[in-house]
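--- STAGE predict ---
source: upstream dedup step, 1 unique chain passed
mode: sequence only
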Amino acid sequence: MATAAATPLVTDPVTGPARSPRDIVPADLWEKQVGLLMRDYPYDSVMATRVLGQGYAYLLTAMSHRGEGLGLAPSKIVDIGVHTIILDTVAYAELCDKFNGGHFLHHVPLVEMKDDGSVMKTAHIVACNGWDVDLSLWEDAAECGPCHPGNDSH
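--- STAGE serialize ---
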């Protein structure tokens, strides 16, 4: 029985399919971090893989734009992937050495969800950098405005 190959959510007809962090992250590290997400959150392997991939896409994009003052911000769920990567400090240091000129990319934790469009702008920048963007993991910012359930800032 043949199965259809998964198609990236973001592609560019000029450059081809979007890049995947799985092409950069060693398989054993990827599996370890997927396992950490499954241990710490109620995710199955599919969801943990999605969250981790978007975390790497965000971090690698932020590294490629270091010092540009773009105001990049992950969604709440992408931030979970980001923190899983950062807390694996030895692997994160190696990532920073390889993709950020040896400088640690300091991530400011989200204190509250921004409703200023910065999260979706960031998803667009991630896509423009060639990464596969799983929009459903970025959209929680769009749903958390002042008139939406889940916003505790009223």
